[in-house]
């Protein structure tokens, strides 16, 4: 059963404030007005060796008003949520648009969207993490840490959890008004070994997701089972040989593959990036609009969607920050690039009929920009199990968990490392390796995907802190995927590459 939006947020003068801003801006000459009232609460707790290290609880609230006047943007915001402030911000935003108009290089327009009046939505979660006492949160992380510290192979532990409740009321001059509340959480536990074989670490594979504190039980993720096996895996890793560089078949586990999807597909198919809007900060994209419906992104087994409806997805909403209803669409179909991520402005700029709902702002002080939906690789409906995939490999490496990575400014040439690297010979895991990184170009890598796992291998992974834009904004996004096998991938030895 879904929860309700918190009563103290609904008690704010939401409609009165948005109506005042819209009315004042229209009277001053705005052809478009949208208003967001936001409140985001973020909790953070970290432990070192089962003892508290850092704790914070921060709430950010405010009001943002955006307008279009004679084809130019205007925006103003304030931490004060009141009718009087709304009117002042509306006039400031209009004045900003008028001032910037002579400097504008293009006319701003938005594609249309049906009107959604008085809509309310709350994400799927059971336990509000802010309803759990600080001591209970600490006890849970301390228990998991102490279970690791019982083992001789573990010298230190680091435990970290972050949990967010985001509330937004949106209204625009067309008549749409939406109120939404969503919750998300990320927890990581790391075991560290320091000994004769040097420094090694290994982290849990649990992913961030749109759950509440129920995520920290064992129903949705088996924390106890993972913590129980981590010391043995870490001890084996400390004694494992350094990888011999070369070409290997690679089975990439979803706990690693989500990040490759994020960097080489998610960012590459942001249409604002593909037409140059991020060039000054985080690069452009090789997947330019002229390649739509012609670029062979990967093998025919590759099917990738954008989806703002994914259950427990970090980017899941009912409506985006421009009042566009959540949708699901194809980005890559049978290996071919067929779609992009759009907001209303970019959709109009490239002559699309409708946005696919990818506008988001991380703060009332920031304007909405195009941000990732949940971008996911589909499982093969009749694909193999994980064990069957391992058994099919004659000479390869399994990679689990994410760690460091790099990718060029066109989202094309990349390399990724991981948490665990398991050597496979003749269908059997024969031990671990270390110092492993895989390197490829985006199209070569996805073109080499020769086996896609079945539904039983599918995991929803994701990022809690994806950055974009200037001024910088942070967004959370999920990437679901199955395990997959890639043919003859270039494996680097990270120690050798560093010249050590």
Oligomer: single chain
Biggest sheet: strands, sense, closure? 9 strands, mixed
Query: How many strands in all?
Result: 24
Low-confidence stretches: none
Helix segment tally: 11
Mean pLDDT: 97
Domain Metalloprotease TldD/E N-terminal: 33-97
GO molecular function: metallopeptidase activity
GO biological process, one term: proteolysis
GO cellular component, one term: cytosol
Structure description:
The structure is a single chain. This protein is an alpha+beta fold and 500 residues long. It is built from eleven helices and 24 strands. It has two domains: 233 residues, 2-Layer Sandwich (PmbA/TldD fold), CATH 3.30.2290; 252 residues, no CATH class. The longest helix has 18 residues. The radius of gyration is 24 Å and the shape is globular. The model has no long low-confidence stretch (mean pLDDT 97). One of its GO terms (biological process) is proteolysis. Pfam families: PmbA_TldD_1st (PF01523), PmbA_TldD_3rd (PF19289). Belongs to the peptidase U62 family. GO terms for molecular function: metallopeptidase activity.
Topology:
Blueprint: H1 7-10, H2 14-27, E1 32-48, E2 51-69, E3 72-78, H3 83-100, E4 119-122, H4 134-149, E5 156-172, E6 177-195, E7 198-203, H5 223-239, E8 246-252, H6 254-266, H7 271-274, E9 304-307, E10 328-333, E11 336-337, H8 344-349, E12 359-360, E13 369-370, E14 374-377, H9 386-391, E15 395-400, E16 405-407, E17 413-416, E18 420-425, E19 428-432, E20 436-441, H10 442-447, E21 449-452, E22 459-468, E23 473-481, E24 484-493, H11 494-497
Parallel strand pairs: 4-6, 8-15
Antiparallel strand pairs: 1-2, 1-5, 2-3, 5-6, 6-7, 8-24, 9-10, 9-14, 10-11, 12-13, 15-18, 16-17, 17-20, 18-19, 20-24, 21-24, 22-23
């Amino acid at each position: 059963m879904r929860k309700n939006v918190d009563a103290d947020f609904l008690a704010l003068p939401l409609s009165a404030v948005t109506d005042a801003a819209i009315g004042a801006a229209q009277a001053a000459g705005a052809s478009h007005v949208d208003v967001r009232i936001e409140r985001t609460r973020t909790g953070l707790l970290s432990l070192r060796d089962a003892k508290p290290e850092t704790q914070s609880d921060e709430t950010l609230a405010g009001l943002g008003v955006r307008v279009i006047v004679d084809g130019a943007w205007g925006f103003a915001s304030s931490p004060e949520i009141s009718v009087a402030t709304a009117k002042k911000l509306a006039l400031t935003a209009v004045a900003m648009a008028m001032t910037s108009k002579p400097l504008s290089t293009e006319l701003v327009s938005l594609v249309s969207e049906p009107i959604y009046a008085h809509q309310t939505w709350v994400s799927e979660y059971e336990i509000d993490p802010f309803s759990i006492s600080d001591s209970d949160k600490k006890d849970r992380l301390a228990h998991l840490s102490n279970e690791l510290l019982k083992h001789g192979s573990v010298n230190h532990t680091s435990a970290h959890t972050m949990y967010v409740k985001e509330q937004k009321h949106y209204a625009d001059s067309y008549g749409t008004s939406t109120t939404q509340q969503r919750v998300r959480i990320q927890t990581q536990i790391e075991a560290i070994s320091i000994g004769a074989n040097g420094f090694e670490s290994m982290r849990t594979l649990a992913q961030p997701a749109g759950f509440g504190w129920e995520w920290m039980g064992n129903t949705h993720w088996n924390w106890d089972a993972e913590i129980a096996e981590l010391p043995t895996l870490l001890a084996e890793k400390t004694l494992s040989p350094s990888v011999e560089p070369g070409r290997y078949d690679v089975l990439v586990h979803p706990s690693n593959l989500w990040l490759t999807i994020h960097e080489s597909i998610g960012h590459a198919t942001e249409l604002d990036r593909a037409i140059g809007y991020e060039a000054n900060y985080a690069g452009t994209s090789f997947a330019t609009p002229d390649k739509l419906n012609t670029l062979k992104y990967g093998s025919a087994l590759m099917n990738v969607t954008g989806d703002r409806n994914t259950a427990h997805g970090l980017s899941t909403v009912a409506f985006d920050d421009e009042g566009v209803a959540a949708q699901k669409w194809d980005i890559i179909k049978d290996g071919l690039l067929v779609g992009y991520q759009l907001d209303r402005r970019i959709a109009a700029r490239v002559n699309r009929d409708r946005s696919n709902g990818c506008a988001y702002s991380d703060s009332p002080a920031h304007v909405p920009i195009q941000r990732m939906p949940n971008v996911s690789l589909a499982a093969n409906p009749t694909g193999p199990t994980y064990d069957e995939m391992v058994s099919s490999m004659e000479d390869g490496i399994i990679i689990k968990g994410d760690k460091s990575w790099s990718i060029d400014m066109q989202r094309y040439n990349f390399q990724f490392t991981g948490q665990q690297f398991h050597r496979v010979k003749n269908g059997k895991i024969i031990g671990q390796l270390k110092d492993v990184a895989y390197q490829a170009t985006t199209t070569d890598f996805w073109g080499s995907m020769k086996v896609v796992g079945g539904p039983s291998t599918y995991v929803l992974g994701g990022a809690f802190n994806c950055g974009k834009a200037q001024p910088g904004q942070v967004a959370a996004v999920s990437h679901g995927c199955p395990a997959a096998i890639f043919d003859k991938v270039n494996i680097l030895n990270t120690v050798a590459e560093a010249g050590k």
